[in-house]
Amino acid sequence: MQTELNNLIKAICVYLCSFLPPLFANLSLRMVIFLISFCNDIKRPPIESILLNSLLAVPGAGLERVGVVTSDFGTSGKFTVINPDTQVSISTIANIHSDAVAKVIDGKVFILNRLNRDSVLILNPSFGFLPEAEYSVGNGNNPQDIVKVNENKAYITLYNSRNLLVVNPYSGALIKTIDLGQYVETSSTGIVGVDGIPEMSQMYLEGSSLYIQLQRLDRNDPGGIPAPNSDSLLLELDVNSDSVINTYTFFSRNPTSKMQKIEMAGESFLVMCAPNRLGFLSKLDGGVVAFSLRTKTFRNNFLYSEITAGGDILGIQIKDEKEGYASVLDSSFNKSIQQFNPSTGQRVSTILSFSANAGNISGLLLTKLGRLYVGDGTFSRPGVLIFDTTKADKPRLTQSSIDVGLRPFDLVEIQ
């Protein structure tokens, strides 16, 4: 009860100060702190927590803010905000699912609570990241991504369904569903046959075209693990007519990462990881793929291959056509963050590495200011590390991990 009360006090402080310019907000906070300090019947929250919550909540405060989805990988999670200038984090009062990811839309944080909570939770940074709304996407549907088209229309991919949701992005009011059942895997190695689900994952909106990853995994594979036994597809949908324009076949299967748009040799590409077999099925058979938005074709070679990386490439952040970063897991469960050159496919350096029992990498984010945030999911000391990619030697800006409470899972830049 005391913790809830303290959190409420913090939220009220942040809410009030968010309407004020930073200077007046700081003065107002000092007054609040003074009053709380002499309030004997309520245990006052730590002064530093109030100040930091205010700093993180006031729009424009600090150079950048990074949100971290954290989890106990059991029953619950938290959304935490990092201020890199002070290298501190504050956990918001919003309770999120233990399996969740985040996306920033119009400055607000959309939390996709995945399997077993199956909802979209909206947090408002201007009001101390208080929950603004939450709506269900249907029990067991497992939402993966949300893309807003306009104030009244958004798409949500459902990993456990053949239906793409079309909803109001803020209320969740259902507009329609789009059946993608015809794009499921073509065959199965199991005796039951195909599972009838296309495994829709991440999306990217370019003009009126919505690009959707379809992994097309075989959930009935005899090995007991959904396997990429069929080619994966990139589906292009016209958001004006909600009709499929075309499908494009990945030359490497199982796209797993968020899509990024980059420019290479004067041409626009969508880039993403397509690791093919990974985890317990791991093989060096995938890499970073690029899809040309001009020719509507995949490049026939990897921007960075798993053979060169020496392991499964699980996440990427690309700065430009000559500089990219990849999160890599090898067959001995060693983890590393590698710098690579997307134009040549060459490995440049390793800026961070953990042996199998010494640490764990979970989450990767490159901000507009060139800071690379790496989630360290080590059980004993979970946190976030920061590197400066604007310097030639990519120096580490944090002596130790910034404590974010639970284990980090996903990172987003809040603008």
Question: Topology, please?
Answer:
Elements: H1 2-17, H2 22-37, H3 47-57, E1 65-71, E2 77-83, E3 88-96, E4 100-105, E5 108-113, E6 119-124, E7 130-136, E8 143-150, E9 153-158, E10 163-167, E11 174-179, E12 200-206, E13 209-214, E14 233-238, E15 243-249, E16 260-264, E17 267-274, E18 287-292, E19 297-298, E20 304-305, H4 306-309, E21 312-320, E22 323-329, E23 335-341, E24 346-354, E25 361-366, E26 371-376, E27 383-388, E28 402-403, E29 407-414
Antiparallel strand pairs: 1-2, 1-29, 2-3, 4-5, 5-6, 6-7, 8-9, 9-10, 10-11, 12-13, 13-14, 14-15, 16-17, 17-18, 18-19, 18-20, 21-22, 22-23, 23-24, 25-26, 26-27, 27-28
Helix pairs in contact: 1-3, 2-3
